[in-house]
Amino acid sequence: MIRVLLVDDQPLIRSGFRALLDLEDDIEVVAEAADGNEGLALARQHLPDIALIDIQMPVIDGIEATRRIAEDPALAGVHVVILTNYGLDEHVFNALRAGAAGFLVKDIEPEDFLHAVRVAARGDALLAPSITRRLIDRYVTQPLDTGTGAGLKELTNREREAVALAARGLSNDEIADRMVISPLTAKTHINRAMTKLHARDRAQLVVLAYESGLVTVGTRWK
């Protein structure tokens, strides 16, 4: 059972998402919150698998709520998915840097929404390739942190290759095809890289790949 926490200051939005989720046999909405502070308290109380958090809220906004969840060892199993009305903007990128596993636009199709919740709960491909491309196109045009690349020295050549492919928006199956390995081995490379780079999830791994210069704008889609 996938346990979900809904955090949004608009009751109509929360009720709409809850109505969709309640129809699914493998998903349970464990709590709802109207602001980030209440959401943090409920996350600690219920330890959901997924926290769907609106990016703009009173008291504590979605970015700060995401950061506090990511920094709390007791909430290590909580995957934050940001909800936004605006698609890609600087706030979304900041949320990913803060530790969000991905984001959804609120006018998403119902079947895509449910699929995204299940994918995020697995900790797998947390950003769709098209979203990754648009995100990087708009915001990551050069390394942002010169210290980020130090951890790359700890990666094997195959791990570096897998990370570079993930940063191009490829799924584990697509990485496996490109590297001529099994999907399980591809996932192992990604997981080991995440551990070595101290990346909370795949979204942060993508950001690190670009910030460190492992993947650059001029070469990323070759």
Short description:
With 222 residues, the chain is of the alpha/beta class. It is 50% helix and 13% strand.
How would you describe what is shown here?
This protein has 222 residues and is an alpha/beta fold. Helices cover 50% and strands 13% of the residues. It contains ten helices and five strands, in the order βαβαβαβαβαααααα. The chain has helices at 11-22, 36-46, 62-71, 90-98, 110-122, 129-139, 157-167, 172-179, 183-197, 202-211, and strands at residues 2-7, 27-33, 50-54, 79-84, 102-105. The protein has a five-stranded parallel β-sheet with strand order 2-1-3-4-5, with helices on both faces. Helix 2 runs parallel beside helix 3, helix 3 (62-71) runs parallel beside helix 4 and helix 7 crosses helix 10. The longest helix is centred in the C-terminal third of the chain and has 15 residues, at 183-197. The protein is globular and about 50 Å long.
Specify the biggest β-sheet.
5 strands, parallel
| Element string (H = helix, E = strand) | EHEHEHEHEHHHHHH
Oligomer: single chain
**Number of contiguous helices:** 10
Low-confidence stretches: 139-144, 218-222
SS class: alpha/beta
Q: In percent, how helical is the residue content? A: 40-55%
How widely separated are the two ends? 39 Å
- In which order are the strands of the major sheet placed? 2-1-3-4-5
What Rg is obtained from the alpha carbons, in whole angstroms? 17 Å
List the main descriptive attributes of the protein structure presented here.
single chain, 222 residues, alpha/beta, five-stranded parallel sheet, 50% helix, 13% strand, disordered C terminus
